[in-house]
Amino acid sequence: MITGPTFEEMLHPNKIAPNVRAKASAARHDNPLDPINLFNITWRDEHDQIYYIVLPKELTGIDAEIVMLYAREFPSGSHKVGAAYSVLLEKVLFGEVDPKVHTLVWPSTGNYGIGGAWVGGRMGCNSLVVLPEGMSRERFERIESYGAHAIKTYGSESNVKEIYDETHRLRNSDPNIRILNQFEQMGNYRFHYHVTGNTVLELAAELHARGIGNGKAAAFVSAMGSAGTIAAGDRIKQVFPDARTVGLEPVQCPTLYNNGYGSHDIQGIGDKHVTWIHNVFNMDAMMCIDDMESKMGLQLLAEPAARRVLATRYGIDEAVVERLGTIFGISSICNMLGAIKTAKFYKFGKGDVIYTIATDALDRYYSVMGDMAARFGTLDEAAAVGRVEGVFHGVRTDWAQLGTPEARQRWHNLKYYTWVEQQGKSVEELDAQRDPEWWIEHQQRVSAIDARLSEVRQAEIAKI
Q1: pLDDT at position 371, please?
Q2: Residue 370, Cβ neighbours under 10 Å: how many?
């Protein structure tokens, strides 16, 4: 029996059967590897409160509100577990994966692979995670702790082609290999369109009722790795057509921005290609963020002495400061800086709310922060002030490109080189994505998938 939630239950966990939800809530801390924790794949806690933080303006330096949903409380510590579950769920429901027979391969640069290792193990599957050797030590440790095996490929965050090459080798080596490619599988898109997108919409209404913002989303900002998260922008724009969807890339690897390439260290984003599941025709701007500034910003929040400066010199509530020190990773700071840049670029101000995501948390980057301290030293008060003023308040509006019709067409055309030339898609399949109905059809499959899972549940109950 598939022991996981529907899309609607991930969005609204209060719709889960009370006895099942109670067991899942208890297992969250007592037995995090119990399969019942699949029902904890949600942006909400056991009291139906969304995991989010309104960033203090003393840190952002702008009048607009920046609201970040944070994913630390998901099973495996990242919202990518939701994408991994959704992809595998669809494959099992419709007979493409048999947990008793098939070995799953999760191509990833980290969080999706970690999520796949966790989900695969909870759903009775053997898993291999393929990721670059240059990712943080904590990523590999987490994968192995979930019972999966990690295969290291050459390079770092930008070396996705090498990941693909290894998945091809694995597929050719064993007919029972199944590749669950986050960059291609629309289950990833559907999770974020339905669950993340609608969570943002509901949060906007909740915040407005509390006097925060105008009840709308001025923008949704997200760096692209698989381009799953940014699918939330598609749902947000259906309700707020004026909302801007802003994508982020590293300055060191500006693929969509100017066909650029290179290595960078914002782990989880900027993979030197345009993913199949990325609806580039809905993206209003492309902005680039420096990887070192992202790591320097995280170091400020990671070091206790530096955080104290936020309280004593900038007047941020100490409880808020402590939360800031635990819920962000490197790509989270990238998204934060991108949201600040978006506010400045579009001149958003009081009453405007920009939404973004903290994909993972500090616990995956202690080794990286150790390297930062070795390189730059730990931060005293003067250095901490320099980080606030230089990294956060000093965000510039350079490296920003509007999503004009010509730019969107160019972003789409870049898919050809990965997906047609290398990955076996046809030109006809690529051209089909130009039609908005192609994306709407994939959005509407959520209800059919939920209905199918409900049918399977009823059939299994009838056997008991």
Answers
A1: 94
A2: 12
Contact yes or no for 309/385 (Cβ under 8 A): yes
Q: How far is CA 70 from CA 37, 42, 218, in A?
A: 18, 11, 19
At residue 312, what is the residue type? T
Tokens of 318: 């100490």
Contacts of 386 (CB under 8 A, 6+ apart): none
CA atoms of 157 and 60, how far apart (whole Å): 27
431/419 Cα distance (integer angstroms): 12
Evaluate if pTM is beyond 0.85.
yes
Is 109 within a domain? no
Is 454 within a domain? Answer: no
Whether the CB-CB separation of 86 and 372 falls below 8 Å is answered with no
Quote the domain boundaries for residue 386: 52-76+186-416
Encode pLDDT of 388-447 as tens digits: 999 999 999 999 999 999 999 999 999 999 999 999 999 999 999 999 999 999 999 999
Q: What is the DSSP string of 83-96?
A: HHHHHHHHHHHTTS
Using the structure block, give the residue that is written with the tokens 């889960």: 16
User: H or E segment at 455?
Assistant: helix 436-463
Looking at the domain assignment, is residue 171 inside a domain?
Answer: no
Helix (H) or strand (E) holding 353: strand 353-358
CATH number at residue 264: 3.40.50.1100
**Window from 154-168, 253-267, 317-331 with minimum mean pLDDT:** 154-168
φ, ψ of residue 36 to 5 degrees: the values are: -60, -20
Q: Say how far apart CA 41 and CA 311 lie, in whole Å.
A: 33
Count of the separate structural domains present in the chain? 1
Q: With H, G, I as helix, E, B as strand and everything else as coil, classify residue 183.
A: coil
Q: What is the pLDDT of residues 206-258, one digit of tens each?
A: 999 999 999 999 999 999 989 999 999 999 999 999 999 999 999 999 999 99
Structural domain includes residue 250: yes
Comparing CA positions, the residue from 232, 128, 225 lying closest to residue 171 is 128
